[in-house]
Amino acid sequence: MLKRLLIAMAGTLVVLSGAARAEVDPDYSVVLLTENFPPYNMAINGKNFAQEDNIDGIAVDIIKEMFKRAGVKYSLTLRFPWDRIYNLALEKPGYGVFVAARLPEREELFKWVGPIGPDDWVLLAKGDSPISLTSLDQAKKYRIGAYKGDAISEYLTEKGVEHSTSLRDQENARKLMAGQIDLWATGDPAGRYLAKQEGISGLRTVLRFDSAELYLALNKDIPDEIVSKLQAALDQMRAEGFVDDILNSYL
Q: Which UniProt keywords apply (predicted)?
């Protein structure tokens, strides 16, 4: 009987020591990478490289607060191009990248925290426009403006939707107000943010033709405990209205 008791106690000590070793180092730090993608992430100086407090945006504000509440250390760098920082997060232990669309083909490549916010494709019209749409095909009879080289413009071309393009997306906001186009094909909330930068408000969404959610994508080596802490912090922030408040502060 005593022998069995000693064996059981020894087994318990082995389990406890293993659990202790499994605890995350309190100095564990995540290397966060992002790109210029207003209004979610952007360098304050407008350049393609920035670090720490020289980066702001909806996602940046949310992620900084999330890491603070979770008690997880991090470093933050904005770099270019997207492919480079995406692959660093994919390949390097302890790295993460945001904001990334959580696509089916990416699902097993990362550990995910989010959603942080939407990335929808929309057609915007002036606030007093009578245009009403239920499909992209119905938009073909209107003058549409889009951002040259953007995925939205390429998608419209694939769908046979004729449109003009501008070298800067905010130019389409001005064209819309000037009556040079009837509809602006852009992202949401990106389009509303760019319009606000031009002093334009009150635009109306007449069609939402694609929807996605944006996340923090973490290297699969990052401990599950870290991921869980971050997700719990974000869930609490959303429940408190913090996430919506940050979104609205930029729009």
A: Signal
- What is the mean pLDDT of the segment spanning 55-61? 97
DSSP 200: -
Q: C-alpha distances in angstroms, 21 versus 8, 12, 18, 63? A: 20, 14, 5, 28
Q: Report which of residues 246 and 6 the model is more confident about.
A: 246
Nearest to 197 by CA among 227, 162, 228, 172: 172
C-alpha distance from residue 63 to each of 74, 75, 227 (Å): 10, 11, 13
State the pLDDT confidence band at 19, using cuts at 50, 70 and 90: very low
Residue 240: which pLDDT band, with cuts at 50, 70 and 90? very high
pTM of the model: 0.80
Residue 22 CB partners (closer than 8 Å, separation 6+) = none
Edge-to-edge strands, sheet with 111-118: 50-51, 73-78, 29-34, 95-101, 213-218, 111-118
Cis peptide leading into residue 189 (ω within 30°): yes
